Amino acid sequence: MLSVGFRALFRREILRFVRRPKNTFMPPAITNVLYFAVFGLILGGRIDEPVPGIGYILFLVPGLVVLGTISNAFENASFSIFHGRWNEYIHETLTSPLSYAEMVFAYVGASAVRGLIVGVIIAVIGRLFVPITIANGLFLVATMIVIAALFAGLGIIGGLVARDFDDLTVMNQFILRPLVFFGAVFYSLTMLDPIWQYVSLLNPMVYMVDSVRYGLLGYSDMFEVAPAAFADVAPLVSLGVLTALTVVVLAVDIYLFKIGYGLTD
Amino acid sequence: MPPAIETTDLVKEYGDLRALQELSLTVEEGEFFGLLGPNGAGKTTFINTLVGLVRKTSGTAEVFGYDVETEYQQARDAIGLAPQEFNVDRFFPIREVLMHKAGYHGISEEEAAERADEVLKRVGIYDKRNERFDWLSGGMKRRLLLARALVTDPDLLILDEPTAGVDVQLRHDLWELVTELNEEGTTILLTTHYIEEAERLCDRVAIMNEGRKVTVATPDDLKTRGTDTISVRLESSAATAPALDGYAHGVSLSGDQLEVRVDDGGATAPQLLHDLEAMGHEIADLEISRTSLEEIFVDLTRSEDRTVTRSSASDSSGGADDGAEESASKREPEREQEGVA
Fold first, then answer.
1. Are A107 and B104 contacting, i.e. CB atoms less than 8 angstroms apart?
2. How does it sit in the membrane (chain A) (predicted)?
3. Residues B93, B134: contact at Cβ < 8 Å?
């Protein structure tokens, strides 16, 4: 799997965003400093603990980490693919002897790395505002890798189907962000009426935010709102489903590369 | 050894348009092969089918015996492509662009760096190695495309209009370089609009039109297929053109200037002189014009069926040779976006 060709493309993709911190790492860092300052410090001081024992600013950390991670993983993959298509330099990759799976794993891997780096930056910023003790480290790492890879994989699809840069903006601003914002980033599901709790369970982002919150803080809304038979193992089930979904998305990516969707005539 | 390129009944359809029509072509290993044809003939579509940028509709295409779709990795590893379009990674200095391309072909980072330096020196832009693509002049960009094709040390070098829009000096530099490469054993497939280029460089040429192969021959063979013109200046004007049945394809007279089109000017001239003198004409001067490859090319492609037109389909598909203009026009708004994410 880790052929020289794969490593070359992976390295190229990593260097692309690492060399442009003003475009890639600075914006989410500044945005999250503002989130923590305004929602955490200024407003958070006036908001009761969303769940017992967890202050509002601490409650925010996992959701903002997820928001930053998946947005950047998606954005990196979709931009890299679409920009390469638009300027046609993706031909350098497509005319190479790399297998389609190697191409996809290199793009997804690098984009997931960017998402994870942003997630860590946001967690570090959060730590500057509030002490954090990681509750379930292994589970947290596994969940973060899975959701970063999932959204990097979705970003590949976005980059292949987009016809112009506006399409990328639409995907990120009008689909991704609303789902994340209604994914219990800024509130606990326990604060909602039961009907909205059940509606929220239809939003896949809820499970991602909740899983990361469980990994980071040891608390899961699912313990309270999920059906009783499922509640105790909810985080593990969520991780399992997300992993399966990621595998499916990566398989779709490879298939699209194989048929040349959006890439060849 | 299998041929460098072998296609059989290769078809590419864009909706109702057949950009390649049952194209069967063989390019032998070590050959310098030219593809000639007007815009929309299918030359770029053919090339892109070999490198994986176009998926064929039917037929087979092999590179050194490897099927371009089922054994695409081996086929692509053998090919170095210098395309018409400036499709170069704009994020990195050109030396790194070449290193990345070499890396994709399985060449270690250390060796890739050495090769990048080597090919940059070979095409004469080593001093620009730390510049990004956008800052190069047009001629340097063209050289870089060649360097990128060479950095993987390909067995088959494909050059798609390599000298389009370049100055005379660069054109001669490129000719010299590709001739050297061919002499070193690299098989070369060249597409060009410049007949002189094909005539000068190629062992054989294929003339394509409307996705079809019109003919394949050596440039010399092709030239024998045309008609020569014998221009005769008579001592005095004649009233009517002499009848030269049997060998003349056409005779025109303007005052004392007589032009006779024949198959082989050199062989026919003595007979013509004899006949004219027998008719009472006195010859003041005679000149034989050999058919140029360009004239033969025009004849061959003009006589082809033009009921299928390329322009209508390329608007919707962006498929073949017209892609260069499309690429150029769509790049403009992109610059504003570059580096955003």
1. no
2. Multi-pass membrane protein
3. no
What is the average per-residue pLDDT within A8-33? 95
Q: What is the mean pLDDT of residues A162-189?
A: 88
Q: What is the mean pLDDT of residues B130-141?
A: 93
CB pairs under 8 A between A and B: 114
> Please, what is the average pLDDT of chain A?
92
Alpha helix ranges (H) inside chain B:
43-51, 72-77, 94-104, 109-123, 138-150, 168-183, 195-201, 219-224, 265-278, 293-302, 311-317, 323-334
Contact between A92 and B77 using a beta-carbon 8 Å cutoff: no
CA gap A140, B239 in Å, rounded = 102
Instruction: Provide mean pLDDT across the span A147-154.
Output: 97
The whole-number average pLDDT for the span A113-122 is: 98
Query: Looking at per-residue confidence, does A261 or A229 come out higher?
Result: A261
Average pLDDT over residues A60-72: 94
Of A213, A86, A207, A200, which is closest to residue A150 (Cα–Cα)? A207
Give the whole-angstrom CA distance, residue B310 versus residue B271.
46
Token reading at A128: 């500057």
Q: Which of A200, A252, A245, A249 is nearest to A226 (CA)?
A: A200
The answer to whether B228 and B290 are in contact (CB under 8 A) is: yes
Please tell me the distance from the alpha carbon of residue B190 to that of residue B159, in angstroms, as a whole number.
5
Number of domains in chain A: 1
CATH superfamily of this structure's domain B5-78+154-222+303-334:
P-loop containing nucleotide triphosphate hydrolases (3.40.50.300)
Residue B23's DSSP bridge partners are: B10
Range of the domain at A15: 4-259
Mark residue A84 as left, alpha or beta (left: phi above 0; alpha: psi -120 to 50; beta: remaining).
alpha
Both tokens of residue B42? 């299918």
Name every residue whose Cβ is closer than 8 Å to that of residue B15 and which is 6 or more positions away in sequence.
Answer: B313, B316, B317
Read off the pTM: 0.84
CA angle A161, A166, A167 (to 5 degrees): 25
Least confident of A168-177, A222-231, B266-275, B299-308: B299-308
pLDDT computed for residue A74 by the predictor: 95
Nearest to B103 among A8, A95, A259 (CB): A8
pLDDT average, residue stretch B312-325: 35
Domain B227-290: top CATH class: alpha beta
List chain B residues with CB under 8 Å of A95. 51-53, 76, 79, 81
CA distance, residue B340 to nearest chain A CA (Å) = 6
- Cβ contacts (< 8 Å) between A20 and chain B: which residues? 339
- Sign, CA dihedral B74-B78-B84-B85, equals positive
- The token duo for B147 is 């360097």
Banded model confidence at residue A156, pLDDT cuts 50, 70, 90: very high
At B303 the pLDDT is 58
Tokens 């601003």, residue located: A173
The Cβ of residue B203 has, within 10 Å, a number of other Cβ atoms equal to 15
Determine whether the interchain pair B76/A97 forms a contact, defined as Cβ–Cβ distance below 8 Å. yes
Residue span(s) of chain B under CATH 3.30.70.1560 come to: 227-290
Q: Which of A86, A94, A265 sits opposite B330 (nearest CB)?
A: A86
Using the structure block, give the residue that is written with the tokens 């049952």.
Answer: B22
Helix orientation angle between A234-259 and A204-217, rounded to the nearest 10 degrees = 130
Summarize pLDDT for A177-193 with one digit per residue, the tens.
Answer: 888 888 888 889 988 99
